[in-house]
Amino acid sequence: MATASELGRGLLALDWGTSSFRLTVINDAGEERQQLHSDRGIAQISQQQLLPYLLEQIAALPEDLQALPVIICGMAGSTIGLQDVPYHTCPADPQQLANALAPLDGCELNASIVPGLSARNPDNNNRELEVMRGEETQIVGWLAQASEKERQSSWLCLPGTHAKWVEIKQGRVQGFRTAMTGELYALLRKHSVLVQGEQTFSDKAFASGLAAKGESLSFDLFSTRTRVLDQRLSPQHSAAYLSGLLIGSEIRALSGTLKSEAGNFTTVHLIGDQHITDLYCRGLAQQDIQSHQYDGAALAVKGLRQLYLQSNKHD
């Protein structure tokens, strides 16, 4: 592994979410030199043990890397994390986020935490609050590599437990909406009559779920059960069909929003793990919407570095 002198003005970039811990050593050129990855997410460790765990992971690095500055994103900045860092209100650009980095208190680490983002959905009469933590850093990473045209106007989708649909205008996060598709899938798969027994993924069953267009998702969901009963769906493919139903419903709900003033669909930029962005890519194609896919973990590292470089903590 590289030494601190070889790294130059290096950085420790930490993406610490609910279910995972990913610490990346990067050099001054932005190259990833090593990564420590575990399933010790914020939800898997008591709050009192979060800081000791972080210090333990850094202490496992070679001594000359332990003094590198640390920048952290994700649920580490939440009320159940290392330190509660207030959300930054949209519209927001990378420079505003960089200016709002919060120093980590209570330890000698040269560390800072990225604030999440909040927005009020203008399409809702009640202007319900929308929030994100972690995804904003992936968005910063995406903006750093996007074309000028893409930065001027784009739609991003960051699928996962809580999928985020993000509108980019003039290089800023204008606003966003959240779909609980991933969490609904997990709950229905584990705690409902819709999915029973061992499951294997089926492309055909997933496609059937995408194509199902009922009057309401709450009515459509029961077809996961009844298609098995009338032998139109194999029991072991129920989860794949359910996934298609949920993703298809999410995308159809936003299809009008994704149209330009000329009535054409905009290209959607999918950011996340490939296995889930592949599914969303298929769902978008079902609606004749083009998409591009990006690795979410790589963009998070890029975004963390970009925020550090733009902050006043970097001289």
CATH architecture of the domain at 4-146 and 297-310: 2-Layer Sandwich
Number of DSSP-assigned strands: 14
Order of helices and strands: HEEEHEEHEEEEHHEEEHHHHHEHEH
Which stretches are low in confidence, meaning pLDDT under 50 for 5 or more residues running? Answer: 1-7
CATH superfamily of the domain at 4-146 and 297-310: 2-keto-3-deoxy-galactonokinase, substrate binding domain
Walkthrough of the structure:
The protein has 315 residues and is α/β, with parallel strands linked by helices. The protein has a domain at 4-146 and 297-310: 2-keto-3-deoxy-galactonokinase, substrate binding domain (Nucleotidyltransferase, domain 5). The protein has 12 helices and 14 strands. It has helices spanning 4-7, 47-59, 94-99, 135-145, 148-152, 181-191, 203-211, 217-220, 223-229, 238-254, 274-286, 296-310; strands spanning 11-16, 21-26, 32-38, 70-74, 88-89, 102-103, 111-113, 117-120, 129-132, 153-158, 163-169, 172-179, 268-272, 291-295. The strands form 3 sheets. It has a 6-stranded mixed sheet, covered by helices on one side. It has a 5-stranded mixed sheet with strand order 12-11-10-13-14, with helices on both faces. It has a 3-stranded mixed sheet with strand order 5-8-9, with no helix packed on it. α4 crosses α12, α7 (203-211) packs parallel to α10 and α10 (238-254) packs across α11. The two termini are 26 Å apart.
Summary keywords:
alpha/beta, 6-stranded mixed β-sheet, 5-stranded mixed β-sheet, 315 residues
